Amino acid sequence: MKSLFKVSLLAATLAVGLNAPLVMAAETTTQPSGQVAVNSAFKDQSQQSAYALGASLGRYMENSLKEQEKLGIKLDNKQLIAGVQDAFAGKSKLSDSEVEQTLKAFEGNVKAAAQAKMEKDAKENTDKGNAFAAKFAKEKGVKKTSSGLLYKVEKLGSGAAPTDSDTVVVNYKGTLTDGTQFDSSYDRHEPLSFRLDGVIPGWTEGLKHIKKGGKIQLVIPPALAYGQNGVPGIPPNSTLVFDVELLDVKPAAKGESAPQAPAADASSSAKK
User: Under which EC number(s) is this enzyme classified (predicted)?
Assistant: First the structure.
């Protein structure tokens, strides 16, 4: 049991590190009290509970292994099952010390593979972004700023352009350069409101080129977005494409200080 426990802990650690679906956590968020209906395949609730625990652990491990396969690491499922069975039977082929040493080495290999994949993906995303930006830059009406931001004003709007301390209200759609959509206020049927200095630099700079009622397309390089780290839904070194409609501009009250930058949030990817 001691060895099995260590294996389970490692699987959980790797699954979290590799963003594997947390089946066990998701399935046990709400814990029912009392008795549940016993499936006809089982004699009683105790049998069903034991099976459910095993099934949940199995799914959890399966998701973790699938994530590792994406890194080029493939484990022998038969040996995995044999290790669990032998541990329960008290007939492990490895001592506790050997289990610990083997898992430490394995964890190191997984981390190295994950780092290598991240660097590879970042390089590929950089190349794809540069190619997309070069093509976009040739389109009619596209301008490039000294920071590397590319933009095309589709409708200028009227009034004053927003400043850093203004609150703006926008509708927008965000995609990767391959057209994959990662965020859209249109889909949520709710415009986004924020201080202009409280978002990624590409937005802070880009929205100053239009006024209330204006529309703009932004092609934002990684340095003005999420850089080499990325965020959920946005891979490392991604060039981002935004179509933005500036619905309103609300000047800041006198003496209002700049807010602290909010954390990155998948629900509104323009945020820092």
Answer: 5.2.1.8
Options 183, 216, 220, 234, the catalytic residue: 183
Domain annotation covers residue 165: yes
Q: What pLDDT score was predicted for residue 268?
A: 52
Catalytic residue among 42, 106, 132, 182: 182
For the domain that residue 44 is a member of, what is the CATH number? 1.10.287.460
- pLDDT over 90 at 100, yes or no: yes
User: Which secondary structure element, helix H or strand E, spans residue 103, and what is its range?
Assistant: helix 96-137
Q: What is the DSSP letter of 223?
A: G
- 200 catalytic per annotation: yes
Helix%, strand%, coil% for the chain, nearest 5: 45, 20, 40
Say yes or no: 240 and 173 in one domain: yes
Marked catalytic residue, from 200, 210, 216, 220: 200
Residue 34: Cβ-neighbour burial (10 angstroms; 0-12, 13-18, 19+): exposed
pLDDT digits (tens, 9 = 90+) for 117-175: 989 999 999 999 999 999 999 999 999 999 999 999 999 999 999 999 999 999 999 99
172 catalytic, yes or no?
yes
- Residue 220 annotated to the active site: no
Could you confirm whether 60 is annotated as catalytic?
A: no
Tens digits of residue pLDDT in 84-99 = 899 989 999 999 999 9
Considering the domain boundaries, does residue 213 fall inside one? yes
